[in-house]
Amino acid sequence: MLKKNLVPLILIVLSLLMLIGSNESRLKKAGWTGNTVFFPFRRSLKAVETRQELKQEVFSLRKRLAETTLENLSLQNELKQYTSAFSITYDVGEVDLVQAEIIGISGQYQELNLIVDKGIGSGIQIDDPVISANGIVGKIIQVAADHSIVLPFSNPRFQLPVMDSRTSVQGILQADINGAIAMNLIKLGSDIAVGDTIVTSNLSRLYPKSYPVGTIKRIRESQDNLFISADINPFTLVENLEHIFILKKAVKNESQ
After folding, report:
1. pLDDT digit string, tens, across residues 167-209
2. What is the pLDDT of residues 204-251, one digit of tens each?
3. Rounded to 5 degrees, what are φ and ψ at 126?
4. CA-based angle 104:110:116, to the nearest 5?
5. Which of 87, 112, 174, 251 gets the most CB atoms within 10 Å of its CB?
6. Is the pLDDT of residue 256 over 60?
7. Cβ-contact 150, 130 below 8 angstroms
8. pLDDT at 20
9. How far apart, in whole angstroms, are the C-alpha atoms of residue 42 and residue 174?
10. What pLDDT sits at residue 37?
11. 202 and 163 in contact (C-beta within 8 Å)?
12. Rounded to an integer, what distance in angstroms lies between the CA atom of residue 117 and that of residue 97?
């Protein structure tokens, strides 16, 4: 009981002592009390204030770090775009290129399409051909105000006249349900060989002639023994793309 009331009793005594004497003596006593009796409490309050200030500073630093990280990521993305624009390894001819970023995919597993961040506002139209720095990618099949959907060559719905760059042997580029591509409907006995480069055909009304597609990795006969097919290693890996280029041509709405 005594211990419980000891602290209030001491405080009352100190308060009474503070009231005794002149203003000058009271000020001296207040200073002495603050530097002795209440010094531990003052240190505790100061420590709390310092801790709060440190917490606020840490929060501010973390916020600045996050902002700096986002800014660096944005700059890295811009650098990739500029690098891609100057890394096209073939002659695209007299066309305008609109660079776009892939922002998503749509469709089922066997028929995946790409969603890019350019649309009507950038002058994109249906059937605009799409390329990468290494070769063809596909074509635009749907356009909205601020995005478009690309049908890639790895989608079984995509077909394109192609040819052997060495011998000009013609065929049709098609993909199976697994995304593997082949040059089909090649006449039996045609002069093609493993390692030959396949490019877009002069018969295509989608792409200009001689855009790179891939190289032949295997030749096989069709089941009806009337044609042969050539399995192709594409120059562009659709699943690894970050940026693409949409070709703007003078003539629109033409079929392949």
Report:
1. 999 999 999 988 899 999 999 989 999 999 999 999 988 888 8
2. 888 888 899 999 999 998 777 789 999 999 999 998 898 899 988 654
3. -60, 140
4. 20
5. 174
6. no
7. yes
8. 65
9. 81
10. 56
11. yes
12. 14
Domain 96-155+240-248 is found in CATH 2.40.10.340: yes
Q: Is it true that 96-155+240-248 and 160-236 share their CATH fold?
A: yes
> Which tens digit of pLDDT belongs to each residue from 124-152?
999 999 998 889 999 999 999 999 999 99
3-class SS string, the chain: CHHHHHHHHHHHHHHHHHHCCCHHHHHHHHHHHHHCCCHHHHHHHHHHHHHHHHHHHHHHHHHHHHHHHHHHHHHHHHHHHHHHHCCCCCCCCCCEEEEEEEEEEECCHHHCEEEECCCHHHCCCCCCEEECCCCEEEEEEEECCCCEEEEECCCCCCCEEEEECCCCCEEEEEECCCCCEEEEEEECCCCCCCCCEEEECCCCCCCCCCCEEEEEEEEEECCCCCEEEEEEEECCCHHHCCEEEEEECCCCCCCC
Widest Cα–Cα separation across the chain: 122
In the chain, where are the structural domains located? 2-37, 96-155+240-248, 160-236
For tokens 């199976």, name the residue.
Answer: 176
User: 160-236, which class in CATH?
Assistant: mainly beta
Please check whether residue 137 is in contact with residue 131, taking contact to mean a CB–CB distance below 8 angstroms: yes
**Statement: residue 94 has pLDDT above 90:** no
